[in-house]
Write a structure and sequence with these properties.
With 177 residues, this protein is α/β, with parallel strands linked by helices. The chain has nine helices and seven strands, in the order H-E-H-E-H-E-E-H-E-H-E-H-H-H-E-H. The strands form two sheets. It has a five-stranded parallel sheet with strand order 2-5-1-6-7, sandwiched between helices. A two-stranded antiparallel sheet has the order 3-4.
């Protein structure tokens, strides 16, 4: 089975798909492509969580917005790796796509993204959240596996009992859709 058919088979009859992975893995771009190709509404958690100038919404407001999407009858792809509410999203998900590309590629993508969106807004974040690049964020991205990556694996192994689709290389990620 070719890659396209493999993905199409995995996505058939799914209503709530989560795309998770480290910062810079390509979750938002991939979610947008899948939404177009397979007719899903796309929800970027960064757009729900951040207000202008990277100010976070109240946690209760964020949870309310996410709950509304989870209860919706529409087919949704939800991208984002907000660990603090991942377990709740897992309860509703038919499928989890976990992008596990090497972290050095994620950091390279973060740097490329900074220059790509230097003069215009990223479509997956709230208007007024200008793309920034600093060492602390790059180091944060590099620590994904020790931080939430390890906890995510434990949740997927011990809590989530539905379908998991792992994309473990950049080449595979680029081959879909």
């Amino acid at each position: 089975m070719n890659k396209q058919n493999e993905l199409q088979s995995v996505l058939s009859n799914k209503k709530k798909v989560l795309i998770i992975g480290p910062n810079g893995a390509g979750k938002s771009t991939f979610a947008t492509k899948l939404g177009i190709c397979y007719g899903f509404e796309v929800c970027h958690l960064d757009k729900l969580f951040w207000l202008e100038n990277w100010n976070a919404v109240e946690k209760a407001d964020f949870e309310d917005k996410v709950n509304g999407i989870l209860r919706s009858e529409k087919k949704y792809i939800i991208d984002g790796d907000y660990f603090f509410n991942l377990e709740k999203r897992l309860e509703h998900a038919d499928l989890v796509i976990w992008i596990k590309i090497p972290l050095f590629l994620c950091v390279a993508n973060i740097v490329k993204r900074r220059f790509k969106y230097m003069t215009n807004a990223r479509p997956d974040v709230t208007e007024g959240c200008d793309e920034k690049l600093n060492l602390s964020f790059l180091l944060y991205a590099l620590k994904y596996n020790k931080r939430s990556g390890k906890q995510t694996k434990e949740l997927l192994d011990n809590v989530y009992d539905k379908e998991l689709f792992v994309i473990d290389s950049y080449k595979k990620l680029k081959s879909y859709c």
